[in-house]
Amino acid sequence: MSKEKLPKWDLESIYPSVTSPEFEGDIKKIHELSENLKTLSSDKSASILSILNLYDTLMDVLETVGSYTYTSFSVNTTDSDVLAAMGKAEKAETAAGDAVTMMIHHLSSRTEEFSRPELKDYSLFLKEVKVSSEHMMSLEEEALANEMLQVSASAWGRLQESVTSSIADGDKTLTQLRGMAMSSDREERKKAYEREVKILADHKVALAAALNGVKGTALMLEKRRGWKDPLDRSCNTARISRKTLDALISALEEALPMFRDYLNTKARLLHLDKLQWYDLFAPVGKASMAFTFSEAKELIIDAYSSFSPEVGAFIRNALENNWVDPEAHEGKIGGAYDIFFPKKKESRVMMNWEGTYDSVSTLAHELGHAYHDSVVKDYPASQRSYPMTLAETASIFGETVIFQEVLKKADKDEQLGLIEAYVQGACQVCVDILSRFYFERSAFEARREGEVTPDDFSRMMLQAQEDTYGDALGTKHEYMWAVKGHYYNEGFSFYNYPYAFGQLFALGLFASKDSVKDFPKHYREVLSMTGRFEAKDVAAAAGCDIEDKEFWKKGISVIAEYAEKLKEWL
Fold first, then answer.
1. Helices (H) then strands (E): counts for the chain
2. Share in percent of the chain as helix, strand, coil (round to 5)
């Protein structure tokens, strides 16, 4: 049988190319709009509404340019034209950042006007402007910091992406080796893991330098801006309280014995004494649980349509109009993402297709993000941008929709594979995410004292995995700090707990679908709130109290039921 030809996404409808007059024109437009925003932000007689309208226009163009350059880079990290375009986009971003800083400084002196009726829809944005102004250096310092970020933290982040997307061991790239973790052949999984560890060890010095650069930059800037801890800024960015985060983390910690029991169950299902790291993603059940991309498309369209014809129509449009780039290849970064282009009001999805149920679930996940984008696409930028915590709602919800639909059609042995894959994913989102949270907390503590060595990063990673996976897992993975690009984002530290938040919040939302009249409409309304309200208020509209640990435990109990069900096959 010939290998399936996978589609490539259509980016030409966004811009013809990174060297096109249309792209260059928008780069120029960003600089012009930035200057206009600076001018308006120095005019005390200018209405706040006019300033906000100009800001929204600027953000739409800036986000479209940024999304386009990143998508182009992520599928070809060595393209010289793309790298040049990224440089231009970063200069434009710096100009816009300076203008936004001036705007925040200007608006902070007019807070008494924030309660005017015409500004009602901007209330959350203006509240966040006030908080930002309280954590701002002088205009000159902010301008310097904004410019320096492009050659410090942002550059370090790009280095990590470039290294991990291009390094290889013989005929296999790092991305391909990581994909082999889902092989049904244990010897193949083990060898792939060993090769992965080897090439990461070979590049650990460069990757540790990148991580030191990002975390050092974050600590320096946040201290100067008056944040006590990177986690405080992270919670503010995520629009949650520390009380909410503490409740979530506490619930995850209490659930560790259940997840370790699941890992021991998986070991028995695989006829192993103990799982090793390279067994975490091993398939359980029928080896025939494989999918072509075409099969996955129809499956996902049908499942989303059964939930809501409106959502199904959106998903069909995305899949039939080449919004997805699924093929893994050299020069393409690992993982998956959804990204939005405000000027076109469209999204694109990147992933690395492996033909497994996990790939199907990943595609459904990212298309859930795209649907979320479509719900808020007509709001201005200041009311459209939602935090990472709420960003995972639609994606995890989409995964759950697919899981339930496929499970209904599966035979007994296929159900084993599906349920195990579901619990496996939940284990990653709860246990592995908790290990990442522990690691990043330790990494920041160590970085405060100075440069951290690659071996120290590895030691902290192993300790974090020991504290979460415990003795349910034998071999651990000391270089997970080098692989996960989320650690290399200066703009949002602790880029991990939002996934657990999203998993459990979406499970709670999904569980209520049969008790809420016209749930698809209710679901859409909840998503529409995510850019305009804090997470606590969005959750309250969905009937949830996210500052109560018991709420999070309800979501975990859903996972626990499926984990217990796996024992039927022992």
1. 25, 5
2. 70, 5, 25
